[in-house]
Structure formats: structure tokens, C-alpha cells
Amino acid sequence: MKTKTLGEKIKQERGKKKLSLRKFAETLGISAAYQVDIEKDRRQPNEELLQKAADLLDIPISEFDEFMPSLPKPVKEWIGKNPLIGKVIELLNRAPSPEDTIKQFERSLSKSTVRKYPIAIYESELQSIGLDSASWETETGGDLFGIWGDIPVVYFASKAGPKAQRDHAHFRLDIEYLIHLSIVLEKDWGLRYFGDWHSHHSLGLNSPSNGDKKRIVSVADKNHFDEMAEFIITFNTSGIDKKRKIKINPYLYLDLPSSRLTDAIIIVVKGISPVRSALLAASSLPEQQLDSYGSFPIENLSIPREPIGRVSGADGNSVAQFSERLVNKIATELATISHGNIEIYHKSFGHVLVVPVNDKEYVAFAHDKTWPHYMLQADWINRRNGSITEIDINTDGISLLNLSEIKKMFVDIKNIRAEIEK
Ligand SMILES: [Zn+2]
Predict the structure, then answer these.
(1) Which residue has the higher pLDDT, 365 or 167?
(2) For residue 290, how far is its CA from the centre of ligand 1 (angstroms)?
(3) Distance 206 CA to ligand 1 centre (A)
């Protein structure tokens, strides 16, 4: 009998060897039902199974060739030239659902552009970069500080230090000043140096130069940083003009010590950075003119923005850690003028600081849970008789950022109580 299909051929050869269907299937390691399907050409055995069958039937595998689906010549040639195609076919052959696998291929191929990596930065920091860039006709720059979580967040973008060198060809940071800034920001706020921002005013290049890359790689190496950021600033017009459009080109180094760049996309976090607001309230870093950012309109910045909806809540968790630091900092400062250590309670409405006046009496300051933690009320606590009395004092506009006001309030309350008790 002249066989026409692969199934028929296998059945015929099996008959010649006098092998039962069941025995044959068992030796091949497949079910009898599967073997029936193969012989009725309802399923195609894969290459490995076919080889086993050929061995069992004592025939060369090439005997099956004429029954295999024939490919058009150009396709065969194409596969010959591109060995990876064979791999794709193999993957599809092994896939539990080749249809789904094809759909996955299609989906990934349709994403023609490489996904950009997000970096979040507060509006105030972008404005500060914009203002400083617009104020110089020479190259300028500064530093980026933040916390590198799932999404890196920039909490402070500084202006250059007093000894920075700005000229028409390049910009050199004030290293001594940078070290000073790094210490302040790390100790109080847990921020680390992320990299820098600087203009390519006359250079016109909208990505880091080879020199920039070398510097970043070396800084990362010294500090054991795995990731760094670099923002390159370019302009649409020359000369000093606070209204000119300023373009921020953000890049990330994610494979340090390799200097390979990843295009970044910016998530703009609304409002003022909690770190900037805290530094402002404490009158720290006066040389940075921390409150000047507001004069630069955010609309004058051109930024590759994250499409709305892809990422949300970039700052939520990290602000909580600043709150924690702020509460602890205030407690440490209050302890210097109180009768003993400060007790801190975290409540659903916010934070309570209990400040001892003497062995039995305390002042409790209750603060709202959201940054910058406005004071809700102050209470007088007597632990000997268990009484709690709200103190009649104006707490409007006083937040945890206002350390000196809180200290003054504590002293005032102490003095008033001493008067009452006389
Ligand atoms: Zn540069």
C-alpha cells in the first residue's frame, strides 16, 4: 500500500514490526489516544518524538521527510540564512498555546520604542533649575539629591556653589560646596547625591558628553552608586531671558560602572518639595535662595513627561519617611529645653509629642498627619491626677517645620502655668 500521510506511514511501519498500538505508544512515552491521533493525522509528532518513533521502527528518520509539510523554497532559504527562525519555530512548537505566543510576539513587536524609565521630581525643583538656567548666559548647573526607590525621586535640585566656574565652553561644579550640601542633606533628610543638572548652552548637544559620562562613572565608582541621573539643559533662544523656553533632557545611568545611558521620562510631582520647605523654614542654605523658584513659570519648561495614568503616587511613601524624620528632629530639639525625653505617639489623625515640664506635668502637641503637619491643639497633662486640659493658645499656621515657634510656645505655656499656680 502506498501511504499518503505521515500518520498512515507510521501505522504501516508499526504493522510491519508487529507492534501493538498500546505497546508502541507506551515505549514512546505517550498515551494510546495520542498515538491514535498521530496515526489519523489529527496531531503532528514533534521532531524528538518522530526520531524516537523512527528508532523504534528501525527506519531512518528521513523516511518521514516526504510526509512532512513542505515549505516554499524561499521560506526554506530564509530559515537557512537566519538560524534564529528555527529557534522561533521550536519555541512555538513547544508553547502550550502557539496562538497566544504569536499574540505576545505581535504585542511586543508593536511597541516599537524602548520603554523610558521614569524619574519623579517636584515642581519646585524643576522651577529652580529653570530659573537658574535662564539667569546665566554662560553654562551653568547644580546637583540633584533624592531617594532611589522603585521610582527615583528628586527632592532637591541645587544651584551651583559659590566657587563654581561658569564659562562659555563648560561648567565646573564647586566640589567643596557639593560635599557640604551632601552632608547636610544626607544627615537630616536621608537624601543621596543623584548626579547633576547642567546646561549645554553653546554646546547644543542634548545628551551628556563623553566628559560628563566619565565624571558620572567616576563619582559612582567612588561612592558605590549603582544608579545616577543627569539632566542636560538646552535652550530655544540665546541670551538672558527669563521667559525663554528651557528644555530638560533627563538621562539615567542604570548599569554603572557602564556609561550606557537610559532615556528617562519625568513624573512631575505637584508643589514644593518637602525637603525644600523644611530647609526654607529652618533658614538653612541661604546662599541657595530657596524661595526664588516661584518666580519661574513651570510652563516655560519643556519636559518629556510621563503620560498621565501610567504611574501614580510616586511620592506618597517617601513623604512618610520625611515626616518620621521631621517628628524625630523636633523631638530631639525640644528635649534640649524640656525636663526629659519627649514621648512620640503616632495616631490615626497624626502625631503627638508629649514634652515634660517636670516629673508630673507635660505639654502635648498634636499635629495633623499630612505634610507639613500643622498643629491641631496643645494640651496640659497632669499625670498625678490624670487630667488633660486643652491650652488656650493660637496654633494657626504653625507646623512641624516651625521648630523655633514650637520651642517658643512650649516656653510660653510653661511660664503661663507657673503664673497660674502661684
Ligand atoms: Zn555636559
Answers:
(1) 365
(2) 25
(3) 9
Query: pLDDT tens across 336-388, in order?
Result: 999 999 999 998 899 999 999 999 999 999 999 888 899 999 999 999 998 99
- Per-residue pLDDT tens over the stretch 192-203: 999 999 988 766
Residue 372: cis peptide before it, omega within 30 degrees of 0: yes
Q: Cell numbers 512515552 label which residue?
A: 29
Retrieve residue 261's grid coordinates.
545611558
CATH number of 6-110: 1.10.260.40
Q: Which tens digits make up the pLDDT trace of 51-69?
A: 999 999 999 988 888 777 6
Nearest C-alpha neighbor of 131 from the set 165, 93, 157: 157
Q: Please give the distance of CA 102 from its chain centroid, rounded to a whole number.
A: 31
Q: What is the pTM assigned to this prediction?
A: 0.62
CA 35 / ligand 1 centre spacing (Å): 68
Query: Hey, which CATH number is domain 117-314, 3.40.140.10, 2.30.30.60, 3.40.630.30, 3.40.50.1100?
Result: 3.40.140.10
Residue type, 88: V
φ/ψ region of 326 (left if φ > 0, alpha if ψ in -120 to 50, else beta) reads: alpha
CA of 204 from ligand 1 middle (Å) equals 10
357 CA distance to ligand 1 centroid (A)? 56
d(CA 406, CA 419): 20
Q: How many helices (H) and strands (E) does the chain have?
A: 13, 15
